[in-house]
Design a protein that fits this description.
The complex is a heterodimer of chains A (277) and B (216). Chain A is mostly helical and 277 residues long. Chain A has a single domain, classed as MetI-like fold, CATH 1.10.3720. Helix content of chain A is 78%, strand content 0%. Chain A is built from eleven helices and no strands. The radius of gyration of chain A is 25 Å and the shape is flat. By secondary structure, chain B is mainly alpha-helical. In chain B, α1 packs across α7 and α4 packs across α6. The radius of gyration of chain B is 20 Å and the shape is elongated. Classes of the chains: A mainly alpha (277), B mainly alpha (216).
Chain lengths: 277, 216
Amino acid sequence: MSSSSSVLYDAPGPKARARYRAFGLLSVLGIAALVWYAYAKLDDAGQFSGVLWAPFEYTGFQQRILDGLLTTLQVFGIAGGLSLLLGSVLAAGRLSDHKPVRAVATAIVQFFRAMPLVIMIFALYVSVFTSQRMLALVIGLTLYNGAVQAEIIRGGINALPRGQAEAGYALGLRKTQVMVSILVPQAVRAMLPSVIGQLVVTLKDTSLGYIISFYELLYSAKLIAGNTSTPLGYPYVQVVLVITPVYILMCLALTGLAKWIEARSRRGANRRTPAAA
Amino acid sequence: MGILFEDGNFALFRDGFLRTVELSLISGALALLLGVLLAAFRVSPVPVLRAFGTGWVTIFRNTPLTLLFLAVTFVLPRLEVHLPSFTLAVIALGSYTGSFVCEAIRSGINTVPIGQAEAARSLGLNFGQTLTSVVLPQAVRTAVPPLGSVFIALPRNSAIAGAFNVDEIFSVQQTWVDRGYSTIAIFCWIALAFLLISTVIAQLFRFLENRLAVAR
């Protein structure tokens, strides 16, 4: 239990404990009833019979899900990397001393942050990349997530104490040098959790390839379900039950990485400046 | 750029625009309701409810929205729940956004000073009273900026509904592409519609932020 939640109520006495137990029991019953309803309905429709699950034993079936997963990871890797690159460039643009550069970077960031990704990917697909769906998806993801990453990186740099940059200028460094050797390295550590958080969004958004019929995990899963005819119908429920945990686990792994890095960097920071509170 | 004023396109565009606004408003209301409820669960003294809230947030925050749309479209009919595609979209969008609202409000609760809850408790208020009359009113105020980004993202996310048989703006884009209009012109009109929606919401939240700001 986190300390913030315990502050809302006293340590329970015997009466309160009994009340909490009663509430707990009621909620367990409520949740169990819901789960049971879903289970019973699915069971009535024969959704748990072997016929609908058997296709998962075919190697072709497994291979296509695996291919979809690999494509998803590939798109995520490329788009994630490119969005970080674009984000750094746009953040540098927004922090520039030159007004025109600042204005252009700001306009780009604001526009791509406001535009729905679906609409952008679809527009890229129908206008330029009619035969290269992957490019449309990757470029769409890069533009949107790059704009968001730019704001995160800019926030990290702005959050640094002003004395850091001033000390750099006092040493006679130029702006580029101050940025590269003083501000960015410190900002990177502070903003890594948010950067990785946005990478989780990028990973989830790869599923928008579905909209332009690109064979990432979601679309290939939908195709597999739609093309597998069994005596009990098409295995949509089964495919959804299989790929949802895959997505959740991938995202949790990334979030876990962010937490680990955060904990590590905090430890590192404390070691270096033990006086800082 | 004149496509808006040719063969009934304006009516299509207007209807799509209004549909997007309607979808965003209804699923926004659902998300707010669900988010507050889940946040209350997550800070409640009942372990089962806390676990339920945590589980819900973990699942819905880490599942792609497109997958949720696919799930409500193909799984609910197997549960003998037959709903129009607009309602399905509200369910997918609302339960997805609700988990983000929950996290925004929970982070707001975390910023309320401990003394506030302690004072409330020493006055003899119970958990429900402490939460609703002391902690939540303050928490919601600090949660306004993160809630703002959640609700600015909501209409953007709602565009996915266009791929699942809801006649909103994205489906207008698809229809116009099918009819063979210039893609640049289409994109400009659709982009304009969205910039309008997100600007209005951003202004609303800026206003709320100024009105509700608490000095601590």
